[in-house]
From TrEMBL:
Residues 139-239 form the HTH araC/xylS-type domain. This is AraC family transcriptional regulator. InterPro entries: AraC_XylS_family_regulators, DUF6597, Homeodomain-like_sf, HTH_AraC. Gene3D superfamilies: Homeodomain-like (1.10.10.60). Keywords: DNA-binding, Transcription, Transcription regulation. It comes from the Bacteria. The keyword Transcription applies. Transmembrane segments: none annotated. The keyword Amino-acid biosynthesis does not apply. Pfam families: DUF6597 (PF20240), HTH_18 (PF12833).
Length: 246
């Protein structure tokens, strides 16, 4: 079972959500699709091979096999993971890195989390660890840029750079180092997320949805969905089910 947990107020500017996933009886012929979302996650695996890994910003969808699992994790807002790690986010893009390689005490954290009785207690403890390990302030320019790119009709990169008072090259560098991808790629990923949300909500006419989301046309929508998500909009919609954890 997959479940999301809200961040406490003191982490609300950094954390999109905590999440847990428990599978006792996996269906070994099943996998679930995780779409790029512009976020970096820290994932604690408590069964199988216990470990803590940082999953960098994804540029393409992942198919994750359904296996026995007991996970507690945090998904940072785009650009916010930079507050906790000394390496730039683009050093982690499309990578899975042991958290102890980035200066976090993995063994001690695993030991504590394994003793806690339920998901709520584990999320609470992980939140306390995050508060203790914050190292850098957020880049306010990156925060403004990510908010603008998350709009239904985001500005062009040139318009955004002009609004922020910097060059396109400087904007691209600062967003890439904080988020893991540049502003153009982030805009594509955030639009993909809006498309996936709409497809999960209810059956939709794909041509109308393409127009609503700001794609050039339905062919552009199909191309982007396939390039980033690995499926056409219609194929993605057919994979959805009430138990889908994505």
């Amino acid at each position: 079972m997959y479940r999301e947990h809200p961040a406490p107020p003191e982490l609300a500017d950094l954390v999109d959500a905590f999440w847990t996933r428990t599978v006792d009886a996996p269906q070994h012929d099943r996998s679930y699709r995780v779409l790029p979302d512009g976020c970096i996650d820290v994932i604690v695996h408590l069964v199988g091979a216990p470990r803590i890994e940082v999953v960098g910003t994804m540029t393409r969808a992942l198919l994750v096999p359904d296996t026995a699992s007991d996970i507690v994790a945090v998904r940072f807002r785009p650009g916010a993971a930079r507050a906790f790690f000394t390496v730039p986010a683009d050093a982690l893009t499309d990578a899975r890195v042991p958290v102890d390689a980035l200066g976090w005490p993995a063994a001690a954290l695993l030991d504590v989390l394994a003793t806690l009785p339920d998901a709520r207690a584990r999320v609470h403890h992980l939140a306390r660890v995050l508060l203790a390990h914050r190292r850098h302030p957020l880049d306010p320019l990156v925060a403004r840029a990510t908010r603008a790119l998350a709009q239904t009709r985001p500005p062009s990169i040139a318009e955004l750079a002009d609004t922020l008072g910097i060059t396109r090259q400087s904007l691209a560098r600062r967003v890439r180092q904080a988020v893991g991808v540049g502003p153009k790629e982030l805009a594509r990923v955030l639009r993909l997320q809006r498309a996936a949300l709409a497809l999960r909500a209810a059956p939709r006419d794909h041509a109308a949805l393409a127009c609503e989301l700001g794609y050039h046309d339905q062919a552009h929508f199909i191309h982007e969905m396939r390039a980033l998500g690995g499926l056409t909009p219609g194929a993605y919609a057919r994979t959805l089910a009430p138990t889908d954890p994505s």
